[in-house]
Amino acid sequence: MGTKHDADTAFIKALADLLKDSDLTEIEVSRRFGEDDKLEVRVSRQTIQQVMTSQPAAPVAHSPAPQAASAPAAAAEPASNDPVDHPGAVNSPMVGTVYLQAEPGAPAFISVGDTVSEGQTLLIIEAMKTMNQIPSPRAGKVTRIVVGDSEPVEFGAPLVVIE
């Protein structure tokens, strides 16, 4: 059974790579292996830049007066705001829907500024009706939570930045 799971995981990763390398925004596959054995997969891409573009818009609008001081800050800001290239980024191991707390109304697993330990649950990703806890790969301080609660996420997308 572990071999079948490994093959399914490899298949899903291949679909995610195909989505990443093409102009497609969604792939849906349904395979039947026997009467009771089937695999249904939907891989979709959310444009993360659209979400990120709306966040930095407010701080840039607040500081147009001192242009000499804001020009170097604006040049440094895109690198720090791009979690894809950040060395402390924790990326999604799967396609699914992100949940920041165990259940509605419960406290969030983490907040910006929290110190986390290796293996601590950062968030949950629901994939194929299974709740998957995403553990911290290292100890450190949470400096940014890139995703929002109940948002779709693609394979390899940044979730959290830990420094």
TrEMBL record:
GO cellular component: a single term: acetyl-CoA carboxylase complex
InterPro entries given for it? AcCoA_biotinCC, Biotin_BS, Biotin_Carboxyl_Carrier/Decarb, Biotin_lipoyl, Single_hybrid_motif
Q: Which SUPFAM superfamilies match?
A: Single hybrid motif
> What is the annotated signal peptide range for this record?
none
Annotated region (Disordered) at: 50-92
Keyword Lipid metabolism on entry: yes
Question: Annotated Gene Ontology MF terms?
Answer: acetyl-CoA carboxylase activity
Gene Ontology biological process terms from the UniProt entry: fatty acid biosynthetic process
Which PROSITE patterns does the UniProt entry name for this protein? BIOTIN, BIOTINYL_LIPOYL
Task: Keywords in alphabetical order, please.
Answer: Biotin, Fatty acid biosynthesis, Fatty acid metabolism, Lipid biosynthesis, Lipid metabolism
Q: Which CDD domains match?
A: biotinyl_domain
**Every Lipoyl-binding domain range:** 87-163
Pathway per the UniProt entry: Lipid metabolism; fatty acid biosynthesis
Which residues fall in a compositionally biased region of kind Low complexity? Answer: 54-80
Function text: This protein is a component of the acetyl coenzyme A carboxylase complex; first, biotin carboxylase catalyzes the carboxylation of the carrier protein and then the transcarboxylase transfers the carboxyl group to form malonyl-CoA.
Q: What is this protein called?
A: Biotin carboxyl carrier protein of acetyl-CoA carboxylase
Q: Which organism is it from?
A: Pontivivens nitratireducens
